[in-house]
Amino acid sequence: MSKVGGKDTINSQETKPTILVSEKLGEAGLELLRNFGDVDCSYDLSQEDLCKKIASCDALIVRSGTKVTRQVFEAAKGKLKVVGRAGVGIDNVDLQAATEFGCLVVNAPTANTVAAAEHGIALLASMARNVAQADASMKAGTVHIILFPNFCCGKLIIFTMLFQNYSLKYHRTVICF
Q: Each residue of 66-104: b (16+ CB within 10 Å) or e?
């Protein structure tokens, strides 16, 4: 690093940070990462293989399948600066060990709120149309069309008591629905 106008800048001789992606991400996200650093996509690593690879990495991006344990932080020997959790929650990361090794842990708490809202609307529509009952009737070979009438939403008012951002996502999805 050098100072230009009192600000740190990265010299062209310095290497980009190495980012280990241990679980599949969307190509658009990987492309953004490639613009910033050297991306190593190594999926389905055992704990032992993860510990071997992490020693040369500055950042680790995981989803819910990779367990980032104390052994991973110890194997990184202080080189690992950040663990990014693509999704909600950080229960698969040993936060105590991350703190001890000076590693930042971040997540994307609203990553799946739209999908959750869409799923909720699909479940409401399924209930309104008696989809489960119609499916069971079809599989049993006793389909009675009269028992499964069409359902018209018309002026349907939905009251939901949901957590944090989910209610807004439901509201927006219902309006678009």
A: bebbebbbebbeebbeebbbbbeebebbbeebbeebebe
Range 137-155 average pLDDT? 64
CA distance 177 to 175: 5
pLDDT of residue 61: 96
pTM (predicted TM-score): 0.64
Domain boundaries, the chain: 2-107, 113-176
133: left (phi over 0), alpha (psi -120 to 50) or beta: alpha
In this predicted structure, the answer to whether residue 79 has a pLDDT above a threshold of 80 is yes
Phi, psi for residue 59 in degrees, rounded to 5: -140, 150
Distance from CA of residue 75 to its chain's centroid?
25
pLDDT on residue 112:
76
pLDDT at 69 over 80: yes
Domain 2-107 CATH superfamily = NAD(P)-binding Rossmann-like Domain (3.40.50.720)
